[in-house]
Each structure stands twice: as structure tokens, then as C-alpha cells.
Amino acid sequence: MDNESSFSAASASPLGSLTSGRIKFRHLQCFLAVMQFGSVQRAADSLSITQPAVSKTIAELESILSVRLFERGRRGAEPTREGRLFAPHAAACVGALREGVDELSRHGIEHPGTVSLGVLPTVGSVLLPPVLAAFRARWPGVSVKVWTGSNSQLLERLKSADADLVIGRLSEPEGMLGMTFEQLYREPLTVVVRHDHPLVHENSVTAALLARFPVVVPPFGTLIRQSAESVLTAFGAQALSSLIETLSVSLGRALALHNDAVWFVPWSVVEHDIALKLLARLPMPFASADESIGLILRHDRARRAALEDLIDAIRDAGRERETVRIGMK
């Protein structure tokens, strides 16, 4: 099937009737790209076509469906209610086509195929090493593509079928349309500094003390930032004027070790550095709520043997992490 191939559907509803036109693969590609990037220009760049071509293709699709899929404004292209409703079905069609092509390419021994997954940066370095070791032992010829990013970015990759699965956090119900969430383990937040940091010797941490040092937190809008904000509030430091916001584990670690930073980070990311006495935990004003880390899948995923084995390896690693968490208490 090439880009001009199309699918048809029958429905009694106006939205489902395609008698006045036919939806083609390029319509779905452009629609999902704009959904993912929230911008016609960025979607065009990702598809290596021009912005007018994307705008024209989206307009054609809206004409076929007789609905507006996006509202264009200063903030980019915001999906309408109809756009959000259509997204999981468009992703299902594109995903099924990609999986079918991938299945054909794997028909010969010399083309074993690829699986792709999205994972939070604060989770990947902890969970994926044992997962990929187990998977490679079972499927040595299969390539694994790993995407990292914020939870919302990863969910968009899953919706657009760029990723087969995501290891992340539960989103709002509207953001989980067409997907399932299976909890793997719970992740506590901790606050760490280098082992000989001046705050290590303080009996209690106050807002005034925190203000003397760089404070590294997850970006605003992420779920784990909410936990960090609660802890900052308990320290009396909710009004700190200077914060460093990042999801990068390597940057957060470097800032803590070399810049005297106070780092708000999931426990599993730093447990080895704490065991090696490179980093030290600061006393928390209360036990922060554990964040739920889970496996997120599309309802319509194809049952491929390699993908199912990868999922099983992720579940095994998640159980190991939960055992470690329970042992901390």
C-alpha cells in the first residue's frame, strides 16, 4: 500500500460517512503529526514537506469529515473535541499499517524487525538495563528503539504509533483515550545533595537555607513536579525565585555533585550514588507520596511475539523495583 492507498468505512453518523470523499494515508500522517507537535510548521518539518502542504492536507481531511479538527491560534494548532475523538482511531489505522509492513519485512530471516518504546528519563536508566538484557537474550536479532521525553510527549508518540508502548505515569482520563495503564511499581521522591554538602550537617532544612543553593526540580507541568512542589511548600520554600527545571538525569546528577545543587529526584535514580556515598539524602519534612509508574499500551496493539516478550520483561523488572521499594520501609 502506498501513500495514495485509502481505507473506507461505513457508518450511520455524519462523521463516519465517507461517501463524499476518501481518507488517504497522507491525511492521517499529517493529522497525527500536527497532534503530536501542536504546530503545523513542526509537523511539516517532521514529515519533510512544506507547511502549506500540511495545511492543505488537514483542510482536505476536515472537509471529508465535515468537522474542524484543529483550532489555529497564537499557541499553535490546538485539537478540537472532534480532533481528540478522532486521534486514537487515526493512530490505530497508521499503527496497523506500520505493523503490517513490519511483519512483511520480518518474513525473511535477515529482517528480524524492530520494537519501539517510550520511557521517562528518570525511569529508563533504572528499569531498562535488566529489561533489555532479558529481551536480547530471547530476541538477539531484534532492534529496540527507545524514545525519552515528558509523559505527555511519550503518550503522543504512542497515539501516533511511533512507540509500541510507554513506561510512564497515568495521565488525565481524556489523555488516556484508547490506552490502558498497568501499574508496575511505585516510586518515592527524595531530595539529595553531594555527600559533603553544607546542608548535610543541618538539623532541619529551611527555606532560607535552600535559597543559598541551586534547587533542581522536574519541569512545571509534569506529574512528579507536583510532588516536588508539595515538599517545597513543607520546607516553606514554595516561593523560591530561582529554580533549575530539568528531566535530565545526567544534568541533575552533575549539578548535585559539582554545583552544590539540591536535587528533587525519584529515589531509584540515585540509590546507587547514595550507597556509594557520592550523594546523601536530606531529611524530608514528610514522607512524599509515591508516584505510580506503569506500562501504557494502546487497546488495538498487534500481538507480536517479540513485543509480548518485551512487555513480560518490563513487568518482571517492575516487580523487582516494587520489592526494593517495599524493602525501604
TrEMBL record:
InterPro entries documented for this protein: HTH-type_LysR_regulators (IPR050950), LysR_HTH_N (IPR000847), LysR_subst-bd (IPR005119), TF_PcaQ (IPR012787), WH-like_DNA-bd_sf (IPR036388), WH_DNA-bd_sf (IPR036390)
A Pfam cross-reference name: LysR_substrate
Biological-process GO terms, alphabetical: 3,4-dihydroxybenzoate catabolic process; positive regulation of DNA-templated transcription
Gene Ontology CC, one term: cytosol
Keyword Membrane on entry: no
Residues covered by the HTH lysR-type domain: 23-80
Residues passing through the membrane, by range: none
UniProtKB keywords: DNA-binding, Transcription, Transcription regulation
Tree of life domain: Bacteria
Molecular-function GO term, any one: DNA binding
Annotated family: Belongs to the LysR transcriptional regulatory family.
Protein name from the UniProt record: LysR family transcriptional regulator
Protein species of origin: Caballeronia sordidicola (Burkholderia sordidicola)
Phylogenetic placement of the source organism: Bacteria, Pseudomonadati, Pseudomonadota, Betaproteobacteria, Burkholderiales
